[in-house]
User: Which sequence fits this backbone?
């Protein structure tokens, strides 16, 4: 079964901190020795990563550019790294919104959260797929890896838009996996639970959440095990119980629905 160890060049979008940085380093350390492109907005952190290895390449990348700018960024990445055969979409932001106080709901923040966590990923997927289809025609596997959340399964009402963006990305990942099943492009989805990260720092909730979040090292270990197995869905920590209860079998049910639709069209 194709898995992340088959990759020769892996782009991690959102590699400047937290889950993205940890996964970039873990993939870099695979025995297969892939090149890892660490992409993000904070140049100083990218440079710091790049100093540690010749196989860690920094790439300034802003997912919140407009559609044309985002396409240029993807095209530039492919031109610079033509061996690119895997992309991990890890960048994400999270805001607390209380709709009981509608005047305090910042729509600019809400729309940026939607774009960062969902819309930009769908756009980038559209832009990367032609390159991956060309690799597939040469017999090479490629990988699109989305990072959603346990909150895509059971929402946290204090971050309603974040949960909705992750639920949308989860649904998109399932559909994309089935649409591409007859190609050499494999779609994989990682479901983190609450994980040690900087995601919550601006909310002022880090001290409270730090009492029960999953340590980053343990998350990375479990996520990498799934990526190395080639699992299509990789729920980690407490997200595994949620996935077992509410999501297990959904991909297969979607596949059956697609098969019925295809049969009826013949």
Assistant:
């Amino acid at each position: 079964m194709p898995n992340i160890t088959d990759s020769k060049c892996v782009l991690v979008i959102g590699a400047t901190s937290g889950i993205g940085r940890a996964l970039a380093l873990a993939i870099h350390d695979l025995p297969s020795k892939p090149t890892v492109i660490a992409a993000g907005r904070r140049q100083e952190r990218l440079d710091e990563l790049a100093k540690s290895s010749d196989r860690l390449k920094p790439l300034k990348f802003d997912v919140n550019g407009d559609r044309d700018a985002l396409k240029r960024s993807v095209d530039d990445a492919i031109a610079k790294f033509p061996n690119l055969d895997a992309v991990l979409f890890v960048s994400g932001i999270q805001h607390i919104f209380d709709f009981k106080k509608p005047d305090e709901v910042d729509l600019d923040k809400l729309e940026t959260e939607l774009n960062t966590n969902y819309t930009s990923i769908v756009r980038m997927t559209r832009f990367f797929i032609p390159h991956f289809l060309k690799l597939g025609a040469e017999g090479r596997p490629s990988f699109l890896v989305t990072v959603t959340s346990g909150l895509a399964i059971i929402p946290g009402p204090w971050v309603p838009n974040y949960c909705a963006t992750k639920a949308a990305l989860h649904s998109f990942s399932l559909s994309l996996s089935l649409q591409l099943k007859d190609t050499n492009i494999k779609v994989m989805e990682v479901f983190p639970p609450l994980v040690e990260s900087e995601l919550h720092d601006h909310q002022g909730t880090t001290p409270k959440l730090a009492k029960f979040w999953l340590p980053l090292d343990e998350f990375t270990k479990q996520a990498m095990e799934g990526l190395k197995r080639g699992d299509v869905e990789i729920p980690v920590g407490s997200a595994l119980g949620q996935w077992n209860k509410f999501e297990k079998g959904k991909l297969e049910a979607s596949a059956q629905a697609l098969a019925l639709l295809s049969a009826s069209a013949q």
